[in-house]
Amino acid sequence: MTEIVAALDALTAGIAAARVLELDVAPAEFVHKEATERLGIAPDSYVLALVGGTGVGKSTLLNSLAGENVSQASARRPTTGRPVAWVSAQSAEDVRPLLEHLDVESVQTHQRPGLERVVVLDLPDVDSLDESHRTTVEAILPKVDVVAWVTDPEKYADAILHDDFLRAWMGRLDRQIVILNKTDRLGPVAVRSVAADLATVLKRELPAIQGKAPPVVRTAAIQGEAGVSELRHWLAEAVDAKKVVADRLVAGIRAALAALSALAGVTAASAPPLVNDTERAIAIDRAVFEVLRVVDLPGAQRQAVAATRARARWRGTGPIGLITSVAYRLAGRERKSADPGGYLRAWRTRGSLTRAADAVRKTISDAMPGVAPGLRPRFAAATEAGTLERRLETALDRVVARQQDLEAPTSRVWPLLGSLQTLNTLFLIFATAWVVVWILVRPAVASYDVPVLGPIPAPMVLLALLLALGYVLARILSLHAGWLGRRWAKRLTDELTDTVRQAVTDEAFSPIDRIEEARTSLAAAWREAGSTSTPSTTPASRTAASPTPAA
User: Fold this and answer.
1) Homologous superfamily of domain range 41-239
2) 18, 28 in Cβ contact below 8 A?
3) What is the DSSP string of 67-123?
4) Residue 412 is inside which H or E element, if any?
5) Mean pLDDT, residues 57-67
6) Among 463, 432, 469, which residue's Cα sits nearest to residue 448?
7) Which pLDDT tens digit goes with each residue over 202-236?
8) pLDDT of residue 406 exceeding 50
């Protein structure tokens, strides 16, 4: 039972993935529910259903197997309006819950040896004019373990049997057989010819679903037990009822997963991406470019350099520089031109992210023709106007929010330069006072010959030197702060670029990524269930893999 448990777990995972994809999971849930219930009901017995059209001899076939009149047979069909069960008298009590599960009320018992663990059902005709008969068949088929598809030389190519039932149900049954009844009406050569033709039709029509066509046995039910010997031999081969039941349930689970996989456009082997990796990368590059254009990295760099220089003025200038810094702050000049965090947070004042969203939206829209029809509504939701743009805006807000407390770098050189500037300012005050005294009093002072200018009094020379020294110190501070600020600005914008790219990568295709993840999970579930075939994408095969609950 390990295989069926693993298959049920895989189906549970597949259903969860299909819900993410917003696929119709009701048929798969029905398969899961029916399999779970069936495991706890008479696991030592299996159910064989005789399915066929009007007048192919199902009831006569059952009577011949039983050796007695179990089901009413007549030349005028349909005569079987409700399923008739043929069970061994020894196991009748054990299979009663199973018959209730099948909603079968008409029960006949037998004493045939070797068939104690088989419940044979004679179902209504699939081509009956009474719609309730077909409804009954479709309701009970998902619950049977083995099917014998009964036809005759006149109806073996009947479209209803092939198109509506064989193709639709073959994929979810592990053990089945096609019975060519009424072979007594043909000669030996004609029987072999019809049987070979039927086998060819099955091989041609069914390999995409089952991987192999069911065997064809020939019967002549009107001849009694002798006419059904080949069928009896086939029934005797299924001696392990538990295995028959488990194989049917596993086949049904695989078919349900195949149907979901077909809707999702995946196979058990792979889940090809809906959006080409190259196109995705190009779209992300374009979106990142447009986002960064609105963010304005050059402006942020200028703000970062200005913020570094503003900090340098506080720590690396003398009293005059401090007065200037206070004036800048009070006037709001520093807040406007030296606040990179605030500049980044104000990105909305510089534009919108519509063009960034359009780059992604176009890539998703261009991929739409290659998306499986079942996924298109979910896929189309990823391109809804405004939704993508809002996601990008939210992502960018998160990115810039991290820059709220940006602190400009500092240097241990600046306090030294500040001390020198303070000393220089003091000396400037002294030199200025000396110049004033010299101008007013004209005391005797030394003079220095300066080319072109001639002799210059010592007070004037000292003042000029101190002014030059102050300028040099200010330039050293400015150059060092600018260098440090540009390094910080480069690091800041590089990190911002990487963060924006990651945010765009995470958000731009996030709905598609969730779809891709669910598709990959669905393919893995189908693979874990032991898929051996590729799902057909025809409506019939989807019906086969995931029958609509009718009971």
Assistant:
1) P-loop containing nucleotide triphosphate hydrolases (3.40.50.300)
2) yes
3) TS--S---SSS----S-EEEEETTTTTTTHHHHHHHT--EEEEE--TT-TTEEEEEP
4) none
5) 81
6) 463
7) 776 655 444 566 788 888 888 888 888 888 888 77
8) yes
Using CA atoms, how far apart are residues 268 and 522, in angstroms rounded to an integer? 8
Pairing of strands 106-110, 84-88: parallel
Please provide the average confidence, as pLDDT, over all residues in the chain.
82
Sequence-distant (6+) residues with CB within 8 A of 485 are: 304, 305, 306, 307, 308, 309, 408, 409
Distance, CA of 335 to CA of 345 (rounded, Å): 13
Q: How far is it, in rounded angstroms, from Cα 513 to Cα 491?
A: 31
Instruction: Domain ranges for the chain, please list them.
Output: 41-239, 277-508
In angstroms, how far is CA 408 from the centroid of its own chain?
Answer: 44
Q: How far apart are CA 455 and CA 460, in angstroms?
A: 10
Tell which residue, 418, 517, 478, 526, has the closest CA to residue 12: 526
Give Cα separations from 260 to 429, 483, 512 (angstroms): 88, 61, 18
For 75, the token pair is 């030349």
**Amino acid identity, position 93:** E
Cα separation, 5 vs 9, in Å, equals 6
For residue 32, give both structure tokens: 């899961």
